[in-house]
Specification:
The protein is of the alpha/beta class and 494 residues long. It is built from 13 helices and 23 strands. Strands 1, 2, 3, 5, 7 and 11 form a 6-stranded mixed beta sheet that branches. A 6-stranded mixed beta sheet has the order 12-10-14-19-16-17. Helix 7 packs across helix 8, helix 11 packs across helix 12 and helix 11 packs across helix 13. The radius of gyration is 26 Å and the shape is globular. The chain binds copper (II) ion.
Amino acid sequence: MAATLLLLLGACEKKSDDRPVAATSSDTGGSAKGDLGPPQGPDVNAVLTSPPMVPPPTGRKAPARVIVQLDVIEKEMPISEGVTYTFWTFGGTVPGSFIRVRQGDTVVFHLRNMPDSKMPHNIDLHGVTGPGGGAASSFTAPGHVSRFSFKALNAGLYVYHCATAPVGMHVANGMYGLILVEPPEGLSKVDREYYVMQGDFYTVGKFREKGHQPFNMEAAIDENPTYVLFNGAEGALTGDKALPAKVGETVRLYVGNGGPNLVSSFHVIGEIFDKVWFEGGTKYNENVQTTLIPAGGAAMMEFRLEVPGSYVLVDHSIFRAFNKGALAILKADGPENRAIYSGKEVDAMYLGDRAQPSLQAVAAAAASASTGELSIEQQIAAGKELFAGTCSTCHQPEGQGLEGVFPPLAKSDFIAANPKRVPEIILHGLVGAVKVNGKDYNSNMPPMSQLTDDEVANIATFVLNSWGNPGGHVTSADAAAIRKAQPETASAGH
Ligand SMILES: [Cu+2]
């Protein structure tokens, strides 16, 4: 029996994969075997990176003393176009700086809380063996530095986060990140590595309501987020900030979930994970579609790119992707491969208004609206960006409609007969028989009441001033009034 086991182990070690394939048939020995002796050589300063970048492999063959310097910075940053939020950060970004060490390293951690911080902070690293994961030793008042050290006994991908009371609030404000503890032999070589972290955010205003948005404690307690985001902002990884890659390359994602509340059903539309190191541990599963990442957990996944195009990273709890922001893009460049996939590039259906490189005109319109200097031109420009995805999936990009199914908005005699209908239909939907440009439609447009008053005003103004429609101007106040009214043609769902 013992001999068989030994044979088995021996066979495993000879497998060509550089990962510890022990994963499938034996174990690593955990923390009991994690101490690889005292640090050797000169001290090493850890390379920290901002998301979505990942530090290079440590490349070391022996344990070292690794110095980590991490700054806590409280700062206002955009959470969506035209929406700002006061984030509390590790290293000035959400998620915080990526830390990469090797199993057996002694990590000397310096946590500095900037002098202009309003709050004390600390850090709990899930890769630490010891009560509190460093939290008690790292409690740091504004303008102070604290220092503690730990030996990284277990290899794996670990979340770190602030654990200062109220803990949920510190985490909800963006205080989390990832630390990778490489196994002694390192990880296999891949062409690209990226760092992505999901988090849920709670604001007083609605999704995309413009201006500065304060934290909403009640919504956080109810676990009802306004935003669910990758890397701390809507659009952090879309448009010109999409993750670049090339066909033929192997990509490894380090994906964490800071929470504070939601678990993530992490999925990449159009890809299959060749391998997933589920829960950030040592074993991998193969050929996985969606992997569950708990709050305060992480996973590594690898896939090879065979077909060019946009791959959409989502939380497959899908309203979060399309209505709360949990959407990122990995863009693979390279030659088509029609034998593997003959279809077209992912379209507005999947990207929504994120099919646009940015929603800058929307932010500009909001800024002008708040100073009372909003022009019709600005409303039209903002409305055009919002129309893409929101309306264009049905009414088509140029408002031409789809015969027999979706009526045209371009040169619509139905709109011309009563332009006031446009904001009404956006907010309340439309059901029943209508005749547009001589063609009959008898269908159901769902209300788009999730849009803010600004958004409704801008989209309506854009539609009225485009494609030969009669022109006109819908204000945010008009939209607010229409929202309260209930026309008889309203669609169900009210
Ligand atoms: Cu904190």
